[in-house]
Specification:
Order of helices and strands: HEEHEEEEEH
Structural class: alpha+beta
Number of strands: 7
Radius of gyration: 18 Å
Strand order of the largest sheet: 1-2-7-6
Length: 175
C-alpha cells in the first residue's frame, strides 16, 4: 500500500553497459581466434576482468584490442532477442552452461553471439575505447584486465599524467 520513488543512476548504468558490451566483443574475438570460452567475468570499480579457459599470449593483446576497437568504430547494432524453441537449436551461441528455453541471445554481427541477461549498449560505437591492460596466467587459463569507454579514458589520462610528472622530475621527454 505504500509508494516508492526511484531513479536510475544513468551514468553508472551506462558505464556498466559499456563495460559489459566491451566484454562481449573481447570474448567473441578470443573465441573466434582461439576457441576459448569465457569462464568468469567481474566488473570492478576501475577495471573489469575476464577469465578464459586457455592460454592467450600477451603479445597478441594489441591485435585483439585492435580488432575489438574496429567493431566499435563500425558502430554495429547490438541485438537482443528471444528465439523460439524451434529457432534456438540452429543458433551457434556461446554459453557457460546448457540452457533451457527461453534463452536471451545477444548478438554483435560478425563478432559475438551469446546467451546473456545483462544490459548492453544499442550499438558498438557507444562502447567507446576498449583498452586491454594485462593478460596473466590464471587457473590454467588467462585473466585479462580491461576497461572501456569513460573508464578507459580515465585510466589512460591518469597514466599519461603520471608519466608526465615523472618525465618532468627527471627532465626527460614523455615516451
Amino acid at each position: 500500500g505504500s509508494e516508492a520513488v526511484m531513479a536510475v543512476d544513468w551514468d553508472r548504468r551506462f558505464d556498466l553497459m559499456q563495460q559489459h558490451s566491451g566484454e562481449h566483443l573481447i570474448s567473441g574475438v578470443i573465441h573466434s581466434r582461439f576457441g576459448y570460452e569465457n569462464v568468469g567475468f567481474h566488473m570492478g570499480a576501475d577495471v573489469i576482468t575476464i577469465d578464459f579457459d586457455g592460454v592467450i599470449p600477451p603479445q597478441v593483446l594489441p591485435e585483439i584490442e585492435e580488432e575489438a576497437n574496429g567493431a566499435v568504430w563500425q558502430n554495429l547494432p547490438v541485438g537482443c532477442r528471444y528465439p523460439s524453441p524451434e529457432e534456438l537449436p540452429a543458433i551457434p551461441y556461446r554459453s557457460k552452461k546448457a540452457l533451457d528455453w527461453p534463452v536471451r541471445i545477444v548478438e554483435i554481427p560478425g563478432y559475438d553471439c551469446c546467451a546473456c541477461c545483462g544490459t548492453h549498449v544499442a550499438a558498438t560505437g557507444e562502447i567507446g575505447l576498449i583498452k586491454l591492460l594485462s593478460a596473466v596466467s590464471f587457473r590454467g587459463g588467462t585473466r585479462i584486465e580491461m576497461a572501456c569507454g569513460a573508464q578507459a579514458l580515465a585510466l589512460l589520462n591518469a597514466a599519461y599524467d603520471q608519466n608526465r610528472q615523472v618525465s618532468q622530475a627527471f627532465s626527460a621527454k614523455i615516451t
